[in-house]
Sequence to fold (228 residues):
Amino acid sequence: DTEVTQTPKHLVMGMTNKKSLKCEQHMGHRAMYWYKQKAKKPPELMFVYSYEKLSINESVPSRFSPECPNSSLLNLHLHALQPEDSALYLCASSQTMTSLYEQFFGPGTRLTVL
Amino acid sequence: RKEVEQDPGPFNVPEGATVAFNCTYSNSASQSFFWYRQDCRKEPKLLMSVYSSGNEDGRFTAQLNRASQYISLLIRDSKLSDSATYLCVVNEGHGSSNTGKLIFGQGTTLQVKP
Fold:
């Protein structure tokens, strides 16, 4: 099973709302990632969790708050977002952060901020 | 110089054609190399990992030239379903290990026409 699942598939929120994106994998992977992808651009790394600890934060604004409750779950809490934050948010996982193995991506959450 | 460079295309080819994509990377410490395929409004999906000895999977052949820091993907007998964006992806190397960060090329768009 090489599946990463994400919910919701679509999300529309106002600038004052608080919402959360969820990601789950059952491959026993110990590294999980959040990416942001704008149209016609490659994915941009936001955060990396390794063994449930935040390992990389790519200078992401504090209105994005990641959380890793356990080795299978990854959340991204959203608060006071801006319209320019509208994008496809992708979760990925890999065996470990420094492994030579590939990352597997979930289907993404398409976020629209009004 | 971009860390991973690809010709964005688009490459418009007839069904049955052979098409080749090239990619160069700047970090000589990189150790893992991949081609991902991304369909419109979908997540990136791993197409192939790329090894120094070259590897083949059906109609797809990937080659790596470490000396020239060059990666290629050859698609033979193109199908309509091959139409997608192909992302050249390199794992950021640091010393003898990876950092966990994937560096994406901008993607090459392939359109296979009947």
